[in-house]
Each structure stands twice: as structure tokens, then as C-alpha cells.
Amino acid sequence: MTQLDQWFTDYPEWRPYADLIVVPPTGDEIRKEFPDTSEEVVRRAFDTFWSLVSLGTAYLKMRREGISDRFAAMLALQAPPRLKSNVTFLAGRKPWYELADPRYVEKVRKKLAEKGVSLTPQMEYCPELARYTGDPEAVLPHGQERDHIKKICEQRGWACAGAVECKHREPDRDPFETAPKMADDLIQNKARLLAHKDPGFRKKSRKEQREAVLAKFGPSS
């Protein structure tokens, strides 16, 4: 079983959209299917939403499942109405374990337990922050959720706009430093994604393509 096959085993809800995972849709392709697509979604279609999922793929999945442009764009762009305090940050949001596949929830809990992290019902897990399944940095301390997200984003140099505000800059440390190594089949998958986004990428040698993928997505195994 390849790592990509294992990914679909872990997240079976994405299997019907396998074609969108392997070859993410362009902004124009999304707008052709849904003419009311928000401009920012079209512009940022190739941004990473989570794990192997591009922003455009996440948006298109939600639209095909009947979600409106406004709500799908808000979720895909991770930019809900601005909330400034930890108290109101998660107001109205269901706990992560009610939204995720039970098998995924169990796997996250198991991986965290192996690292000595006990995920209580009061603590939220944020897959968008996870570099891998069961990443302790994706655990949001109760009562400090917004502050924790901002801290991690600042450490990684990520820009955020919306409920959490911070500007892009060079990270304090390599965010992939303690992450699991990337398997060869995932490197090849990411190379296809970059080639689809930038035709000039195909002109690079295999070594150059591999180095470009690792520089963008993480270390190899």
C-alpha cells in the first residue's frame, strides 16, 4: 500500500474526490462549475488547505455537497468573521471530534497519547495546524485557543487574516524539523501538483523537482 492509499484509508470521506486530490482544480475550472465562486478562492485555488488537500479542492468538495459559496469560501479560506477573544473564538463551532471521521479521531487520540498528550473533551484539535496526524502543535489549550494558533503561525512564519491576525515572515525554526519524513510517492504526487500549477516546473530535472518539493513541503524519508 502506498502512502497515498494509506491517506485515503485514514480519510475515506475524501476518496470520492481522489481526482481532485491528485490533480487539484484551477481557479478557472472551479468558476466554470460554480460561476458565483468568490474571487479570492479563484486566486488562491492552489494554496494548501490541509495535508494533501488544496484550497480549491476543499472548496469544490463543499460546493458539490450543497454548501453555499459564502460559507464554503469562509471555511476554505479559514477566514470567519473576526472574533478577538479566546472566550468567543470557538463560539458556535462543533467540537472537532463531531466533525471528523471516528477512525480519524481515534487515530489522532492514539498518536497524541504515544507522545504523552492527553486530549480532554475541553481541548480542541485543529487539523489545519497539523503537520502530520496527531501533531501536538495542533492541540489548542482550553481557554487559550486563539492565542495558541497565533503563536504557532508566528513561529512558522505563516500569514493569517480573520479571527487570527499575523503577518508572514521567516519562521523561528523549520516547521518540518520534527515532522515525519515524506515518502517518495508523496514527493511524486506533490511534483505533479506543482507541474500542474506551473508548466515551467516540468522543464526542471528530476533532482531539481525533488529538491523543489522538499523545500516547499518537507523533508524526505
**What class do helices, strands and sheet pairing give?**
mainly alpha
- How far the N terminus sits from the C terminus, by CA atoms, comes to 16 Å
Compute the average pLDDT. 78
Beta-strand residue percentage: under 5%
Give helix % range. 40-55%
Q: Rough shape?
A: globular
Give the number of DSSP strands.
4
Number of helices: 12
Please identify the oligomeric state: single chain
- Detail the poorly predicted runs: none
The profile of the biggest β sheet is: 2 strands, antiparallel
Radius of gyration using CA atoms only: 18 Å
Give a nutshell description of this structure.
By secondary structure, this protein is mainly α. It has helices at 3-10, 18-22, 27-33, 39-43, 55-64, 69-76, 86-89, 96-99, 102-114, 145-156, 184-197, 206-217, and strands at residues 48-50, 53-54, 124-125, 139-140.
Walk me through what this model shows.
The strands form 2 sheets. A two-stranded antiparallel ribbon has the order 1-2. Strands 3-4 form a two-stranded antiparallel sheet. The protein contains 12 helices and 4 strands. By secondary structure, it is mainly alpha-helical. The chain folds into 3 domains: 14-76, no CATH class; 86-156, no CATH class; 184-217, no CATH class. Helix 5 (55-64) packs antiparallel against helix 6 and helix 11 (184-197) crosses helix 12 (206-217).
Defining key terms:
two-stranded antiparallel ribbon; 221 residues; globular; 46% helix; mainly alpha
Structural topology:
Elements: H1 3-10, H2 18-22, H3 27-33, H4 39-43, E1 48-50, E2 53-54, H5 55-64, H6 69-76, H7 86-89, H8 96-99, H9 102-114, E3 124-125, E4 139-140, H10 145-156, H11 184-197, H12 206-217
Antiparallel strand pairs: 1-2, 3-4
